[in-house]
Design a protein that fits this description.
Length: 114
């Protein structure tokens, strides 16, 4: 039994690159995945590929810059699997704001750990 077997894992930025590779690897080791990204067509293709190899996977189109969408991702994961064990926070995020206004992205993590 691998460490990731039966773990419920959210992967943001899962539609390509490191996120996609991570999803494929974790699925192969038995993790239950919730994939998140903005590009639904790529998410659907990845889900089909993982399911074809016997993996357990779901997806939710999510823009991590949108707090409501992040909350919906957490809610969908809890509804689908009943828990969240791991967050692979891979999505790129480059919000623009004046330096003196700062940036508080901690809500992303707090939304997932409620």
């Amino acid at each position: 039994m691998s460490e990731s077997e039966s773990k419920v894992v959210i992967i943001t930025g899962a539609s390509s690159g490191v996120g996609e590779a991570t999803a494929r690897r974790l699925a192969a080791s038995g993790a239950k995945l919730m994939l998140a990204a903005r590009r639904e067509d790529r998410l659907k293709d990845l889900v089909a590929a993982i399911e074809k190899t016997g993996g357990t996977v779901a997806y939710r189109v999510t823009d991590v810059a949108d707090r409501a969408q992040v909350q919906a991702l957490a809610d969908a994961t809890l509804e689908t699997y009943g828990r969240i064990d791991v967050l692979v926070n891979n999505a790129g995020l480059m919000p623009l704001s004046p330096l003196d206004q700062g940036l508080n992205c901690s809500w992303i993590i707090h939304s997932l750990i409620k």
